[in-house]
Design a protein that fits this description.
The chain is mostly beta strands and 85 residues long. It has a single domain, classed as Immunoglobulin-like. The protein is built from no helices and five strands. The protein is globular and about 50 Å long. The protein starts with a strand and ends in an 8-residue tail after the last strand.
Length: 85
């Protein structure tokens, strides 16, 4: 699933590859550039074979060697009416 609002809501992505045992799968998600300029936080999370989603936060019991939560990606949308540079 993919979030375009910092994890407040989630939408399903489309799979590009078939299911494989212990295999990575590519996916795609169409995100239309928002009309409002500003910072947007994107997240992607996976589900396991039982349908359990990744935890929203880091589990401190894993220390720093396991990162099993979605990592935020910040995207900045410019105002198309303002010249860049």
């Amino acid at each position: 699933a993919v979030s375009t609002d910092g994890g407040q809501s989630w939408a399903e992505a489309q799979w590009l590859d078939p299911v494989g045992r212990h295999a990575w799968r590519r996916w795609q998600f169409e995100w239309r550039t928002p009309a409002r300029p500003g910072k947007y936080t994107l997240l992607a999370r996976a589900k396991d074979a039982q349908g359990t989603a990744q935890p929203a936060q880091h589990d401190p019991n894993h220390g720093s060697y396991v990162i099993n939560h979605p990592l935020p990606i910040e995207v900045f949308v410019d105002d198309p009416a303002k010249p860049s540079g």
